[in-house]
Amino acid sequence: MRSIIFVFLAGFFTACSGESQSAAESRADGIKQWALPDKLREISGLALTSDGRLLAVTDETAIVYELDFETGKLVKAFAFGEPVVNGDFEGIAVLDDMVWLMTSDGQLYQASEGDDGQQLDYRHYDTNLEDDCEFEGLAEIPQRQSLALLCKNPNKGKKLRLYEWRAENDGLERTSDFTLPEKAMASAVDEKRVNPSGITLDPETGNWIVIAARQHAVFELNVEGALIDVILRLDPDRHQQAEGIAITGDGRLIIADEAGKGRARLSVYPMKTWNNKN
Fold it and tell me: How many CB atoms are located within 10 Å of the residue 90 CB?
């Protein structure tokens, strides 16, 4: 059985370093977009390490990929568990150099960052929030040593919420949550509702940046969860299914799209093209 597992994983790990993608599509406004390889067809989350490297996760398996967002190349891949953990993974975050993965039913997995091809020991935490909603989006809050879990589809009788959990003493503690202003967000983009698909913190303002794939929009919320603005409307031709979002220290916005009927893509927006306050 171990040999079968090894052969299966070889397709993910071998020849990862320097793997080239198709040439970047560039526009006059400076936006760059790369088509990603088939192994990233279901890319579902993005996170930046403390030294500015980009990590990504896909649905179905706890395999983490490092992507060079300057070149669109795959750098490495490592996995949680041996055999690799399976699940509907919808979020990734990096807190104190520990990598966290989240499934759609609120399961959290924690491991250190691995080398290329490494299969890691991990910790598993159950938030017991599966009855509240379907989750899609995970972000770190470094100043509070916390993780933010974003609800996409609340269950009947529940509301669209953001849940905060503090990582401490080798465990997790639920500290707070707030209801997202769904009506205001939906009204701002002429929709009846909003289905968030990713979240990150703007390192400059400390505000929440929320992406919604179905509504092709990126919203800015303040720390209390009030809507500030719709900061970007996504071109459906360039963004089939925007699932992952991250903001670099120098203000570039990175968006990952699942493949849909085409190829998965990674887009990098210069500050001036997405933040309408600049």
Answer: 27
Q: What pLDDT was estimated at residue 256?
A: 97
List phi, psi (to 5°) of 215.
Answer: -95, 0
pLDDT tens profile 134-150 = 999 999 999 999 999 99
The stretches in the chain having pLDDT less than 70 are 1-28, 169, 272-278
d(CA 211, CA 216): 8
199 bridge partner residues: 210
What span, in angstroms and rounded, lies between the C-alpha atoms of 143 and 126? 23
In the chain, what are the domain boundaries?
A: 2-274
| Cα–Cα distance for residue pair 192/179, rounded to 1 Å | 17
Q: Cα angle at 277 between 272 and 278, to 5 degrees? A: 35
Model confidence pLDDT, tens digit, residues 21-42: 444 555 547 889 999 999 999 9
> What token pair was written down for 190?
């002429």
Q: Which CATH code fits 2-274?
A: 2.120.10
Structure tokens at 275: 């933040």
Question: One-letter amino acid identity for 147?
Answer: L
**Is the entire prediction scored with pTM above 0.85?**
yes
**Strand intervals (E) in 96-241:** 98-103, 107-112, 119-120, 123-126, 133-141, 146-154, 161-168, 171-179, 198-201, 208-212, 217-221, 227-233
C-alpha 27/C-alpha 256 separation (Å) is 18
